[in-house]
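Let's study a protein:

___
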Amino acid sequence: MNVAIIGAGTMGSGIAQVAATAGCTVKLYDLKVEALEKSKSNLEKIMSRLVEKGRIDQDEKERIESNIQYVDTLKKLKDSNWVIEAIVENLDIKQNVLTTLEKFVSDDCIIATNTSSLSVASISSALENPERCIGIHFFNPAPLMKLVEVIPAIQTSEKTLDTSVKTIQSWGKTVAVAKDTPGFIVNRVARPFYGEALRIYEEGIASFSEIDKAIKEIGGFRMGPFELMDFIGNDVNYTVTETVFKAFYFDPRYKPSFTQKRFSEAGYLGRKSGKGYYNYSEDGKMTARTDGKSTRAKTASEEKVTDQAVFDRILIMLINEAADALFWNIASAEDIDNAMTKGVNYPKGLLAWANEKGIEWCVSKMDELYQMYREDRYRCSPLLRQMNSEKLQFEV
């Protein structure tokens, strides 16, 4: 298969590596020659490290590298069977690039967008043949992350969807098919991981490090929400939150946090700026901020109970969001759980976690929060309530 990747940044280069490793002939396009040179140099370093570690041999390294050609004109992509756009998250720019591309490729060439937040229907609408367009959302780093969200727009043909799913699976990835709605699966379902942690901090219940500790020690997550936001970048995470909030017509469940907004405005972006919810030394060592303490006093005997309460509150909000994604037919139960375990490395699928905790427990926890706050943010998913009344469990 002849595959073209538009955009030689981190994501585009990673996708090119995945396709080349799978045996595809790849053309990586970028308007900037320096971006292509950097991508080629980085791939050579990555391949050399894999050889050193014994993951691949020299012949395999040379095979993968020879499968990628670096080009700086769209016209050179004319023989492509499949094109994946991985450029800046801007609707106008994506539409302009893809409409120009469409003039060069064949009528049966599939055109995919790696958007993480934009409407695939909007991107598709600019094409002469929108039936060929589909969302293909890789996660960073693309060579390592197993999940790929596949998002058909309302214009996407069944043939385009079927070919896309089979192609991605043949590259050794796990596919989760999602409805073309804001955030798709992962960026929608994961919002409470950040949002509820920020809310708990703003209420003075626990500090950044205390919340992270509860999530890691009780929940088994690799990183706490504040560590992860610092890793992603507070500016990036805040922008995604704001985008999802607006896209859902200002649903209070996705309401952004003033804390994150202020940290972003102050330039406290996390690891990349040396300051965030934690402080970072030049060698990357992380230390807790002295101004990130909780304002409510706790005795030593209350510590474990408080940690459990913090974890339970974030977990139930995540479970409720996953259940609502299923309620609104965003994806299947299996794809929702696969998306969270393979896309963002959650220790368990959220729907499987709901079964483990008990559906009755889930409904009770959501109702407790609603009774306390009387905010629509804490409304229980109708699906959880229905399943509880019928004594059902999720089929995952």
Residues 37 and 373 are 55 Å apart (CA to CA). The chain has 17 helices and ten strands. The first helix runs from residue 10 to 21. The beta strands are 2-6, 25-29, 68-71, 82-85, 110-113, 133-138, 147-151, 174-177, 278-280, 286-288.
